[in-house]
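Hi all, long-time lurker, first post. I run a small reading group and we've been trying to get comfortable going from sequence to structure in the token notation. Rather than ask abstract questions, I figured I'd post a concrete chain and ask someone more experienced to write out its structure so we can walk through it together at our next meeting. Sequence below, copied exactly:
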Amino acid sequence: MEHVLSPATLAELRRPRPYPAVSVLTPTHRREPYNAQDQVRLRNIVAEAKRQLEADPAVSRERRADVARRLDRAMSEVDLTHAEDGLVIFAAVGEHQVWSLARTVPERVVLSDTFLTRNLVSAQTAVRPFWVLSLAADRVALWDGGMERVTEARVGGFPLTRRVENFDPERQQRVGDLQSAFREERTRQFLRETDNALAAVLRDRPRRLYVTGEPAALSLFDEVGSTAKGAVHVPHGGLAHGTPESVWQAMRPVIEAEARRSAAAVTRSLETARGRRAFAAGVDELWQTARDGRVRLLAVEENYRVTVKDAGNHLVFAESGDAGSREDIVDEIVEQCLETGAEVHFVPDGTLGDADGIAAVLRY
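-- Answer (accepted) --
Happy to help. Here is the structure in token form:
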């Protein structure tokens, strides 16, 4: 299953395709007892997608059979034992993908000439993915960070390793000679190679970057390279050889502190905007201002969801399952704001007070 939405991947997903490009969305659950019905729900929504294919006169028999086979193959690749909060299946002639999301999605089937990407975009923004680069004299690991987890990334040649004769970092640390490994020319060259490899990864998948290591390693990496100049340094050694859990435990206080500072800064921006009459809140007002490209900064509480219907020139609240209801209006607004260059921040529930879960600073 796919987890990483790079700009290149998003552009490929949005590419027009021969009709039908089928998007199947269903919520999933991480824990019992809520996940007991996920498999049944998934079978039912895929069956509904096939029913719509069968009933659509614009779909030829050959294309219907091909896309149905792709839906079956996608189903066989789903691993609900590692489910997150939402699942998206894309299927078209000759291709299929399965995406696991750390954000819930509405249950729906869409047949179009492009795949439905707004839920992927919103989930990616909410998770705030980041990289952790862990330095040692004999190994450099790159960690892929997301919502309460990290995994070791096998991209761009990472992890990088080299053989170091008689290298014993634990002994060097005991005798206070850990810095000597980072004075060698071979180590400098190793970290230059690391800088080049990291630059290639960040070009394809730009994210917030944290660099961990002993102070001597961090200092040398800054000296020999330029890619990580804006990174956050975390002086914690041993993580290049660590486990995902040890890396997450080391990074968690740093990530949480940054999240608190970010939420406080967003709150201050919204308060200032109120005074300048550049403030908007609520899905009805923001639905229109986002489409007009007027939003400069959007703030959304992490678990805010609302179902609405289009009543012409404004939105009205609706029940899930009502005819014409839109259960992912928040994700629509998030995607529209991102496409018009706005900053989008997800903040803890309750942060926005009387703003009803979603608020913005306007450009004009």
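A couple of things your group might point at:
The chain has a mean pLDDT of 91.
The CA atoms of residues 200 and 251 lie 23 Å apart.
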